[in-house]
Each structure stands twice: as C-alpha cells, then as structure tokens.
Design goal:
2 copies of one chain form a homodimer. By secondary structure, chain A is α/β, with parallel strands linked by helices. Chain A has 12 helices and 12 strands. In chain A, strands 2-1-3-12-11-4-5-10-8-9 form a 10-stranded mixed beta sheet, sandwiched between helices. Chains A and B meet through strand 6, strand 7, helix 7, helix 8 and helix 9 of A and strand 6, strand 7, helix 7, helix 8 and helix 9 of B. Strand 7 of chain A pairs antiparallel with strand 7 of chain B, so a sheet runs across the interface. The structure holds 3-isopropylmalic acid (2 copies). One 3-isopropylmalic acid (IPM) sits at the interface of chains A and B. One 3-isopropylmalic acid sits at the interface of chains A and B.
C-alpha cells in the first residue's frame, strides 16, 4: 500500500514523540511492504510563530490531500494566561477538526498489566478496564453561536445538534460495539437538555438495527461517578462534544497510563491520530518524553486502513518494551530508564 | 431561637432518612434551647401522584414562609425511561431551585479516617481530602431557552450567564475560602466558551478584594482529571451549573463516603439542606438506608443559622457512631449493622 501521511508535529514534545512514531511506522511499512510518504506541516503555537495562525491554509491543503494525519501535540504556556487572546493554538485545533470533518473522536482507555499500580484507583477497581469513548467532535456548544450582549455583561453559548449529526456518531458507536463487547452506553443529560433528548431518541430508534448490541442510557453525572467506581463495567460509550471532553479526560487518568493512551479522530474521509497527552512544554527538547502514546496512535492509524497485522505488530512491540523495561523515566519507577529516541529506536528495530 | 423548617421528605428512602434528621435536630434543639416547628410538604414523585405536579404551589408557600428547608430525595424509576415525559420529579427540583432563588449549591467532599478504605482510590491519594464545590444552581444551560426546530430534527439549548450571576456565586466562594484553606479554584472552559470567559474575567476582577485568597483557574477537563489524581490538592472550587453537576458527582464518589455527604443550596434568603444521595427506591421502606448524610445536612442547616456549636454537636455524634460501629449495613463491612431508625435513635440520644 502507498500511504501519504500528513505529519503535524506541533508544539512542545510533539516533534520528539512524532519522530519515534515515524521510525516505528517506517519499520512496519518496510516489514509489510508498504510505502509511506510523510508530509510535514505546521500547526499550533509553532505555526502562529511562523505564519501567524495555528492552522494555516497550506497545512489544511496538505492534510486534505493525504490519506491520514499523524499529530503530535499543541499548546504553549505563553497563551495560557489569556484565554481571550485573539489567536490561540486551540483555535487551530477546532478549525482543523471542523475543516477535516473529524466528527468522531475515538478515545480508548485500557490497562497494561505491568502498569496497574500506576493507577490512582485500587487494583481491583481498575483491573480489566477496556473501554472506548466516541466523542462527537464537530458540533454542540463548541461550535454553536456564542457572544456577548448588554454591553458585555451577558455571555451566551448555544448548543445545537441535528439528528444527522447524532446518527453518524451513533452509527460508528454501534459498529464499534459489534467488534468488541457489544455494549453501548449513550451518555446524556436527557432529564434537563433538549439536545440530550434528541440524542437519546435518535439512539433509541437505531437500536433495532443492531439487535445484538445491549444499549444503556446514563446521565453524564452518573457516568462521571461510575467511571471512578467501576470503569471495567463499560465497553463503548458515545456522547456529545462537551461531555466527551470532560469524561474522556477523567477516563484517561483512571488507568494510570495516560502517557500511553492513543486516540483517533475520524470523519467520513480522512482520519487523524494523536496521543492524548498534551505538549508538555517543560519536557520539550530533553529527550525524556514517553513516545508510546504516539506510537500506539500510529497503530490505530494502520488499523484504520484495515492493516490489522501492522497495528498488532506495533502493539506487541510496545508491550514487549514495557515488559522488558525499555521505558522512559515516567514509567521507570526510579529504575533504569531510556531516552525518547532510544525507546523509539528500540521499538523500530524490534518490529 | 425559634425555627420554622419546611420538611420535604420526597420519594424513596427520603421519608426514612428525614425522620432521623428530625429526631437528631430535635435533640439538638432541646439541648441548646431552640424551638423547631416542622412543616411537612409534598414534593417529587410523591407530589405528582398526590396532586399532579412535583413542586406544588402549596409546597412553595410553605418553603417561602419557613426559615430553611430540609429535603430528603426525589425520583422514582417509573419516570426514568421516559426523559421527555411531560411531568417529571426533576422538573420540580429545578422549579424549586429557581423559585426559592437557591443559586449556590454547596457540596463538600471530605473523608472519615475510619472509612478511607471505602474509597475506590488508593489511600495515599484520598487521605486528607477536604474540598467544597460551590456550584451555580439557577443559571446556565439548565435554564436557557431550549427547544426544537426544522420539524424536530434540530435541538438546541442555550447557555447564558450574566456578570451579576457569576459575581454573587464567586463572592460566596471567596468568603468560604477565607474561612477555610484560602484557596479558590475557578473551573471553566475559557478556551472554548464565551460564558466561561465571562466567568473568568469576573473572578479575576474580584481577586483584589480578597488579597489573602490564592486563586487558580483550571479547565473543566483538567479538573475532572485532578479530582481523581490529587483530590486533596483542592480547597474551594467554584463553577457553573452543568460543570458543577458533573464534577460534584465525580467528587462525591472519590471519598467512598457518598452515603454520608450532605449539601446545602443557598440563596440570598432561604437555604435548603439535603443529602447528595438519591431516592434509592430499591431500599425504600426496608429500614436499611444510611441516614447520616441527611443528619449531616441538618448540621449544615444549623451552621447556616450561625449555630456552630449545634452543628458541631451533630458532626461529633456522627463521628462517634462511625467509630463505635453504630452504622447501617452499607458501612458494616459484613459485621454487625443497625437499622435506619436505630441509628437515628442512637444519634439523637447521644447528642
Ligand atoms: C484544547 C481544547 C479546545 C480541546 C477540547 O476541549 O476539545 C482539548 O481539551 C481536547 O479535548 O482535545
Ligand atoms: C436531577 C437533576 C436535574 C439534578 C441536576 O442535574 O441538577 C441532579 O443531577 C443534581 O445534581 O441535583
């Protein structure tokens, strides 16, 4: 297979971890006879510094003409203390999601037996957790009309959803559940919000098309609780943009392996793959960042091309590295640790 | 002091736990020389069954003319599978909050040394946790315009906040922080939402009036993570209605003592006091429900009348019961347990 992959390294540790994912992907490609052409492009604070905006048109053109996007991380502290600054890295992220039609954010939370003790939860609570959130990513209150009135004294944000938006996300959820534990939880606040009632009635109407999937409906506040209490009781969860933002982050820390969690953002067309961790500027350039989440994001990318053996090869080599202690300092428990690039080299050469 | 207290027992286990709080409050009143007149009134599913609505005018009149409201729990499973039902217990709750002007929901999460092992979190994570959320309760997306258009295919919910609404909540937050650890965290999503930017700028402008309070600003997704990772790093948190709904419930389970957590909803006028647990219909009428959260809510009620010794007497007797194993089965770890009313009697007679 010939693959054109847009490479958006972004800010902070982005470039370092992306480098390792490229090495590992290239090793996979050569082992399985694929050919990858990497197309680097600017994004985030790096792009603001270079050309004045976080998601330049040129970057968008490169993404549009590629088969997938591999993404590092964006964000820089110099933008953090002024949320109303006119140009911010996050705006690039939102623009990119919308422009590429990435409506489904796939956020798995799973555990590694060797890392269970990193979880803030007790072992018996976290053991066996293997869940996936599908977060709607291009609608809801993120993209509704927002502004001020009464001379700035009143602020508003509109949350809007159409049945079609809910359907296409829910469809991915049902399909994903069919490949996994066949359980789907629709997370909403249907006792208060009209958009949630639309979500719930739309999903209810789809149930008959997936008779094997066991569907449940839970309020977002109840899920925020059960994620901490019994995370291993979930399989696939679908939810709207803002609830997904909060709950996927909550879920990411319960495993204790946040530095290892990959994600995918899918649309009808192109997919984007990125680690869930941020740009972690304090660690940038120090060769200490853990590249495994980005490497596992590359695994999701191969799997999304239906290259399952390729994805599996990556997952296996990551497991092997964990078992053999070929890890960065965040996972070394004070024992021997390796640099970002050493871990990347080891993974690539063990594919 | 002469106190008129509206007594809204509600549904499920509500009446049983309320009974115990009444006993304990009466014991406190007689010890400290106060006179309480209890005014029972209908609410929730019970009120729907009796008079067709969850918060009848008569109940509202009773609340308005009282000095405080002691509330049990509402909700019944027969309403759960139809979120769009025209009359629902939750609507009564929202109507009551708005009608009584209860704009500040005070939700503490603290730990009991003897119950630390009930937490889903590891001991070193949860130990020492003592935080309070102030959730805005009468604004935001809960009360904004909502509805459908395009023949029901599009749903919308508006989130609206005025600077005044933010100010009065934040003021309570600053004042509360001054009586505690002097740390205030404003939880928002100012990188995306205009209402959050209004929250942040309003709180920023108030900082100078409370120079001793150390203020931080965190995004709601980050807080959802840190609550699980380092709950004991927080003191007072202020936030808008929907974020508060999600985060206070998340916070409530980390302590492992959810069955013991009280809450208060305050306005400029009357206060309402209730356990955070629900109506738990499966346990109703079995004399097994834990009354301690409701009893501690009565403690918050006394404290809100500046009757601090009275509140303390209740907190102490609850601690004593926990230490001496005078507990309901949820806390008995398979050991000896007591009924709801036995625990209530014991607490009242040990005041
Ligand atoms: C940076 C921010 C706009 C973004 C979001 O809220 O979607 C982030 O939190 C995420 O989850 O990817
Ligand atoms: C029942 C529901 C409307 C309510 C809310 O969302 O406010 C509840 O979850 C709560 O937190 O008191």
């Amino acid at each position: 297979m010939k693959l054109n992959i847009a490479l958006l390294a972004g800010d902070g540790i982005g470039p370092e971890v992306i480098d390792q994912a490229v090495k590992v992907s290239n090793a996979v490609a050569s082992k399985f006879g694929h050919e990858i052409t990497w197309k680097p492009a600017l994004t985030g604070a790096t792009a603001i510094d270079a050309v004045g905006e976080p998601y330049p048109d040129e970057t968008h053109e490169i993404c549009k003409s590629s088969d997938a996007v591999l993404f590092g991380a964006i964000g820089h502290p110099k933008f953090d203390n002024d949320p109303s600054a006119k140009v911010r890295p996050e705006q690039g992220l939102l623009k990119m999601r919308k422009a590429l039609g990435l409506f489904a954010n796939v956020r798995p939370t799973f555990t590694f037996p060797s890392l269970l003790d990193k979880s803030p939860l007790k072992k018996e609570r976290i053991e066996g957790t293997d869940l996936v959130f599908l977060r709607e990513l291009t609608g809801g209150i993120y993209f509704g009309e927002k502004g001020r009135r009464e001379e700035g004294e009143t602020a508003y944000d509109n949350c809007v959803y159409t049945r079609e938006e809910v359907k296409r996300l829910a469809k991915k959820g049902f399909e994903l559940a069919m490949t996994r534990g066949k359980k789907l939880c629709c997370v909403d606040k249907a006792n208060v919000l009209e958009t949630s009632r639309l979500w719930r009635e739309t999903v209810q109407a789809m149930e008959k098309d997936y008779p094997e999937v066991e569907v449940s409906y839970e309020f977002v506040d109840a899920v925020a609780m059960r994620l901490v209490q019994w995370p291993n009781s979930y399989d696939v969860l679908i939810t709207e943009n803002l609830f997904g933002d909060i709950l996927t982050d909550e879920a990411s820390v319960i495993s204790g392996s946040m530095g290892l969690m990959p994600s995918a953002s899918l649309g009808s067309d192109i997919g984007l793959f990125e680690p869930i961790h941020g740009s972690y500027p304090q660690a940038a350039g120090k060769n200490i960042a853990n590249p495994m989440a980005t490497v596992l994001s590359a695994a999701m990318m191969f799997e999304n091309f239906s290259l399952h053996a390729e994805g599996k090869a990556i997952r296996e080599v990551v497991n092997k590295a964990l078992n053999e202690g070929m890890v960065t300092e965040d996972l070394a428990d004070g024992g021997k640790s390796y640099g970002t690039s050493e871990v990347g080299d080891w993974l690539a050469s063990n594919i």
